[in-house]
């Protein structure tokens, strides 16, 4: 019986037809590495009655290959699919197993005809060297290591470089996302605009580039007076660290304005080490000065209490910002991309310590003002804050009236204390 497997695009076929025993494939997002790996695995397990393992960094990542493989084998006579063990068995003895690398000891003991390691650069070197490489020895099995690039100079990068050499047993490729003919070029162009260049090169360009050092370049920081306030959408972000200790983190606030053409203006940034109630006063004073549409405060741990207290004691347009699972770098990436593209302007007179934080992020001593700026960006994507919205997120709290200080932009001749 003839089995029809999904077709491969030309670059996938180039990898599949290479006779090298060890193949290392670095590719950008949406290139089709998972499809290539599953098709190759089925050819060996079904067509050659071999034993194949698919290994990914975590159980959830291994599930991606599993979900792709199941429908491909659904109509094959005699196939046995075991969800509990994550194994597909074929008539004639072929086996296709899906495993995770989070328990390396479970990867010992089997002899394999083919090993596919998905997102290999996110697995430790010891897993390859001590657990997986020995599984290929008795059957002289082949290996296909596929991944987006992660660690410049790491074990996977070194194997990639080995594949660029003269050893016929090793071959390697680096294919950017745009070498997939089925990927819409418009999506690639959109990602190029949305992402910092270092991230785009790594995630889409399949480049081994380090993202561990400082991210912003001094030449990306441009100073320019902002346009009139009424032409800007003004928001404020707050990063809290309630402490008066000398070496503690700072509580910081950043005010961000967006013009109709999309240009962002960093209007004000400040930080303070103070007690809880002093920090609340700091936030209130800054918000009263700039009158933002939204005051975004990260609603995690004790900061949620500050949100509740501001809702209870002021009429400020406070809105909780929920970072979810995003880390500091991920939250800052949209702003980093806009700095690089020349879409961010600093108002004259910002403190030098803010610029130092930006140029040192994320490896500098402090990053509180950068976090506040990221929080302001998150708040900008939200609608106008309302009491009903806030209490829905944090619980009903009473709130009193508070008078606003006059806006310094109302009178261009007013002294700014």
Topology:
Layout: H1 10-16, E1 22-27, H2 33-47, E2 51-56, H3 59-73, E3 80-82, E4 87-89, E5 95-100, E6 114-118, H4 125-132, E7 142-147, H5 155-163, E8 170-175, H6 185-194, H7 197-203, E9 222-223, E10 233-239, E11 251-258, E12 264-272, H8 276-290, E13 294-298, H9 303-313, E14 318-321, H10 328-340, E15 344-346, H11 352-360, H12 368-380, H13 387-394
Parallel strand pairs: 1-7, 1-8, 2-5, 2-6, 6-7, 9-15, 10-13, 12-15, 13-14
Antiparallel strand pairs: 3-4, 4-5, 10-11, 11-12
Helix pairs in contact: 2-3, 9-13, 10-12
Give structural notes.
- The protein is an alpha/beta fold.
- The protein has 13 helices and 15 strands.
- It has helices spanning 10-16, 33-47, 59-73, 125-132, 155-163, 185-194, 197-203, 276-290, 303-313, 328-340, 352-360, 368-380, 387-394; strands spanning 22-27, 51-56, 80-82, 87-89, 95-100, 114-118, 142-147, 170-175, 222-223, 233-239, 251-258, 264-272, 294-298, 318-321, 344-346.
- The protein has an eight-stranded mixed sheet, sandwiched between helices.
- Helix 4 (125-132) links the parallel strand 6 (114-118) and strand 7.
- Helix 2 crosses helix 3 (59-73) and helix 9 packs antiparallel against helix 13.
- The protein is elongated and about 75 Å long.
């Amino acid at each position: 019986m003839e089995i029809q497997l999904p077709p491969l695009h030309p670059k996938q076929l180039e990898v599949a037809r290479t006779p090298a025993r060890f193949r290392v494939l670095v590719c950008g997002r949406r290139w089709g590495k998972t499809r290539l790996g599953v098709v190759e695995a089925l050819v060996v397990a079904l067509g050659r009655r071999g034993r194949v393992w698919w290994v990914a960094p975590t159980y959830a990542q291994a599930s991606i290959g599993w979900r792709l493989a199941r429908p491909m084998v659904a109509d094959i006579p005699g196939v046995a699919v075991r969800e509990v063990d994550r194994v597909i068995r074929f008539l004639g003895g072929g086996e296709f197993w899906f495993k995770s690398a989070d328990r390396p000891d479970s990867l010992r003991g089997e002899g394999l005809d083919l090993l596919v390691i998905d997102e290999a650069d996110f697995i430790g070197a010891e897993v390859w060297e001590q657990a997986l490489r020995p599984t290929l020895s008795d059957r002289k099995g082949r290996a296909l290591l596929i991944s987006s690039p992660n660690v410049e100079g790491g074990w996977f990068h070194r194997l990639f470089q080995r594949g660029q050499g003269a050893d016929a047993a090793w071959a390697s490729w680096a294919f950017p996302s745009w070498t997939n003919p089925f990927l819409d070029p418009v999506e690639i162009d959109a990602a190029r605009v949305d992402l910092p260049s270092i991230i785009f090169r790594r995630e889409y360009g399949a480049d081994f580039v380090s993202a561990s050092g400082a991210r912003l370049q001094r030449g990306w920081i441009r100073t320019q007076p902002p346009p009139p306030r009424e032409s800007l959408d003004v928001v404020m972000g707050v990063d809290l660290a309630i402490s008066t200790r000398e070496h503690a983190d700072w509580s910081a606030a950043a005010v961000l304005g967006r013009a109709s053409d999309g240009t962002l203006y960093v209007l004000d940034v400040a930080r303070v080490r103070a007690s809880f109630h002093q920090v609340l006063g700091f936030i209130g004073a800054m918000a009263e000065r700039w009158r933002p549409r939204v005051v975004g405060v990260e609603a995690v741990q004790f900061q949620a209490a500050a949100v509740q207290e501001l809702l209870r004691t002021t009429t400020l347009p406070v809105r909780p910002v929920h970072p979810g699972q995003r880390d500091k770098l991920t939250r800052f990436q949209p702003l980093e991309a806009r700095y690089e593209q020349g879409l961010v302007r600093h108002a004259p007179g910002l403190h030098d310590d803010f610029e130092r934080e930006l140029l040192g992020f994320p490896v500098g001593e402090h990053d509180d003002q950068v976090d506040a700026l990221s929080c302001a960006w998150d708040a900008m994507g939200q609608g106008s804050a309302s009491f009903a919205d806030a209490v829905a997120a944090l619980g009903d709290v009473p709130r009193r009236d508070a008078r606003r200080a006059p806006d310094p932009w109302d009178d261009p001749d007013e002294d700014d204390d």
